[in-house]
Design a protein that fits this description.
Elements (H helix, E strand, L loop, with lengths): L3 E5 L9 E7 L6 E2 L4 E6 L4 E5 L4 E6 L6 E3 L3 E7 L32 E2 L6 E2 L31 E2 L4 E3 L2 E3 L1 H10 L17 H10 L32 H4 L28 H16 L2 E9 L9 H15 L5 E4 L4 E4 L5 E3 L1 E3 L2 E3 L2 E2 L7 H16 L13 E4 L19 E5 L3 E7 L2 E15 L5 H15 L4
Parallel strand pairs: 17-21, 21-22
Antiparallel strand pairs: 1-8, 2-4, 2-7, 3-6, 4-5, 6-8, 7-11, 9-10, 12-13, 14-24, 15-16, 17-20, 18-19, 22-24, 23-24
């Protein structure tokens, strides 16, 4: 009898409750050896390759490319090969594994069941856990680092009907990318659902391009020709009939009501998925207050690095007002003042927002700051940055002014107490002895959690930054 083992998605070291399947490196039915790369998974911070925990044949996968798998949920089934090396039962893999929870013989209310094609999960109307088929109790639930909840749920994408077309978000995203009009694609899935293969085939054949005129075969046929001797009614051109005014002379919409919006829903994944969670949690927890002012940098000598000067100003302000270089625990009403300064540098990418930590900023000079920032940005861009470098900072900096904007209300992410944002530099007329001068200024915005710091502390912090930025070098 074949020895079938199930592998459950472990905590990938990111402290997050799920991960997205990017690509299976081993096909179903293929053979894989112990610790060989098996699947690429995208978390909120990186794309990682998950090694195989067994040697043998991959007999089933519990998620296709684009599916979101919860930490602790089934990922793949293996048929072990006794002739190949296996990991000893007592040997630690560094992960938490175990069979799913026991379920009753019949799904209880709020319990999901496995889909008929065994490729996903059909959720109940009330939500809840997944029926596991009555397997043995699992040893643990794949808990993750921190106060994150474990879960056995596989978040399989469900087909939704939009404009009369049934398709999952991943299929709609692919159609948008390939320029395929889903309304012109012949569905092959169960219940008239358009599949990924349907979209790929239509794109290859070029029969469903967005904006293309319908073919003659698909055009509606005329009901009957006019009777003999009857004069056909004159047909006005579409261009002549269209107008922005109604018959009463009032503005009217010109788009036919049958034309559906071209936008398609897209499931958030990876970095953007985590950003949505983090920002929502921060908005619900923090009591934000923002102060703004302009830093006069008229005295700067050539060669000053703006990022380096901003980092130095934050460091000096943290030394002058330690209350903002702190963490706050809202549940226990405690705060931690940090003797060191680790600054989270916001980095904008196409995938979403990253905030790597500039460690020991209070020990770096301008050259060291620039080198460290360049290194962090390069690691973010090629997604090689360790997850440990994306957490643990004591205060944050957003230099959004490199794009546009003057002032902002940046979001404080717990447990931090404050974040500084620098807007786009500009020249303004400044009164001086005997008249006015054009001085260059940098607009600054400081958002702080009013639960942990007073308005006076925040104002003194901002003043310390302004004083340091006013120095020539």
């Amino acid at each position: 009898m074949a020895d079938i083992r199930t592998f459950y998605l472990p905590d990938l070291g990111e402290g997050l409750p799920d991960a997205t399947v990017v690509e299976w490196l081993v096909k179903v039915g293929g053979t894989v050896r112990l610790d060989e790369p098996m699947v690429s998974m995208e978390t909120a911070k990186a794309v990682v390759e998950v090694p195989s925990p067994f040697s043998g044949k991959l007999v089933k996968v519990h998620g296709d490319s684009g599916d979101v798998i919860a930490t602790g949920a089934a990922l793949a089934d293996f048929e072990l090969d006794p002739k190949m090396p296996q990991r000893a039962e007592a040997e630690s893999t560094g992960h938490h594994h175990g069979p799913p929870k026991v379920a009753a013989a019949a799904p209880a209310k709020g319990t999901g069941t496995e889909a008929p094609d065994h490729r996903g999960v059909v959720a109940s109307d009330e939500g809840g856990e997944i029926e596991s088929g009555g397997k043995a109790p699992r040893a643990d639930e794949g808990t993750v680092v921190g106060a994150m909840q474990s879960s056995d749920r596989v978040h399989a994408e469900q087909a939704t009907s939009i404009g009369g077309v049934k398709a999952v978000p991943a299929v709609r995203a692919l159609a948008k990318k390939l320029g395929v009009d889903l309304a012109r694609v012949s569905p092959s899935g169960a219940g008239g659902v358009v599949t990924l293969q349907d979209v790929k085939s239509a794109a290859a054949a070029g029969t469903a391009r967005i904006g293309a005129a319908p073919s003659a075969a698909s055009a509606p046929t005329r009901s009957a020709s006019p009777a003999a001797g009857a004069s056909p009614a004159p047909v006005a051109s579409a261009t002549a009939q269209r107008t922005t005014l109604s018959a009463a002379g009032k503005p009217m919409r010109t788009t036919p009501p049958t034309v559906a919006a071209s936008g398609q829903p897209e499931q958030l994944k990876g970095v953007r998925r985590n950003m949505a969670r983090v920002m929502a949690a921060a908005h619900a927890a923090v009591v934000p207050t923002t102060l703004s002012d302009d830093a006069d940098i008229h005295a700067w000598l050539p060669g000053n690095d703006i990022t380096g000067r901003l980092v130095r100003a934050i460091v000096r302000a943290c030394k002058a007002v330690p209350a903002l270089n702190a963490w706050f625990d809202g549940d226990n009403l405690t705060r931690t003042l940090h003797p060191h300064v680790d600054i989270g540098i916001a980095v904008d990418t196409d995938d979403g927002l990253f905030v790597p930590a500039l460690r020991n900023a209070d020990m770096l000079d301008s050259t060291g700051v620039r080198a460290a920032v360049n290194r962090l940005r390069a690691q973010v861009e090629d997604r090689s940055i360790p997850s440990s470098e994306l957490a643990g900072y004591t205060i944050s900096l957003s230099n959004f002014g490199v794009f546009a904007g003057r002032y902002a209300t940046p979001v404080v992410v717990p447990p931090c107490v404050a974040i500084v944002a620098a807007g786009k530099g500009r020249h303004q007329m400044t009164p001086v002895m005997g008249g006015f001068e054009s001085h260059r200024v940098i607009p600054l915005s400081l958002t702080f959690d009013h639960r942990a710091a007073t308005g006076g502390e925040a104002a003194r912090f901002l003043k310390a930054m302004l004083d340091d930025l006013a120095l020539a070098q």
